[in-house]
Fold:
Amino acid sequence: MPVAGPVAELRCITKSYGAIAALRGIHLSIEPGELVALLGPNGAGKTTAVRILLGLTPATSGQAAIFGHPPASREARLRRGAQLQVAKVPETLRVREHIELFSSYYEHPLPFAETIAAAGLAGIENRLFGDLSGGQRQRVLFALAICGNPGLLLLDEPTVGLDVEARRGLWTRIREYVARGGSVLLTTHYLDEADALANRIAVINHGRIAAEGTPAEIKERGAAIGLEDAFLAIMKESSLQEVA
Amino acid sequence: MPHIYWMEIKTEFLKLARMRAYTIFTVLFPLMFYCFFGLAMGQQSMAQQESMGQQGPNRMPPIAMYLLATYGVFGVIGATLYGFGIGVAVERGLGWLELKRASPMPAGAYLAAKGVVSLFFGALVVALLFTLGAVFGDVRMPPVQWLELGATLIAGAIPFCALGLAIGNFAGPNSASAVVNTIYMPMAFCGGLWIPYDFLPHGLQHFAPLLPTFHFAQLALAVLHAPIQGSVGTHLEALVAYTLLFSGLAWILQARGREKMYG
Structure:
């Protein structure tokens, strides 16, 4: 048995896609009960870091571990839940069927009623996924992340595309999960989201951790991030204008 | 562990059964084709055939019986290519498969469910075709032969599960049905599934043995003691070779797909 240590850890991780380096030596650890936000612009390497922790892609070099186990191991899979950016689940299945299927993958899943309550899905258990609103769909995906009763959640931009109310609702669910003793790694490109939820923020840019600290510490250096976002937005606008 | 497989199969079944596009394409299409070509046209050619008075152990069976085998092949392949091919392409494209791969689900459960459910819908098409053939086409066979034909049709779908997986690992979620149809329809026609091999243009007759559909159809026809091209052994070998080829292709394509770039 591994001794109590970080819930998740990335050590000296690099990842290259051919000649392009997505991660250039990342150190990151998540301690028990902690909610760490990985904050950075699009293309900074957030999703790559999450995919390595999920065992979906191997690192080019360095070590990754979930509860001391390799990310692709069964032990790691059983103790971790995930919400991915683009996951759309089949639309002709009911909320109940999705949750029961995912719960069956785990050895000690949450009772169905608890998953429903923790994800705020009461009353829509029997609706087809295709008939749900954007916020409800996101809550179903959150339910799939927590239904196995995992000690760690990896949430990759969980609130993208949600309206304010749905976003706040999901924040509440995430806070409740941490209050029950879970640990979370959340990626986001919203500073306010990281600020509202995280104990610790790691700012990632161009495949490197540019800054790390409590939300208060990061906010002191916030101008840099604001500039980065503004810079990217301008880049995008100008390239769109060129096309038009 | 068996519980996961069962849940996966059950969920896959419910998902497909509620998808109208799937049930219409896979179930109604082959039945409709068989009604037109096997039953309506069959009535006519039956009279002709009787007047020709064929004899011998391997004579041409009645059209309604002959086409029961080839449309059975057509139907079973449709159920697997649509269920497996489009299913995998869509679920991979939408990120659903990623989420499952990150979960403790055994990869085998996903593939087994797709296979079992595709074969189930294939068997359903076969059962309905058999009913049409027996009731309206006056097809008569000993019970053992019905069973043999049914079993051959279902087992013959296995190479096409592998082909479906290869397509699913290659096609995008929106283009998958176009890719499947572009492969499935010409392969069905040129393999002699719609029109018997002997009636195909000569150019196509040379080309047909390159297609897995041709070998599958010849095996099904062999069960009916219809005249076939080549031996049962060579058709079996060809289908085994195609299964290996498509599985290899599927493996290569999925390995390639995983290293897509992310920010």
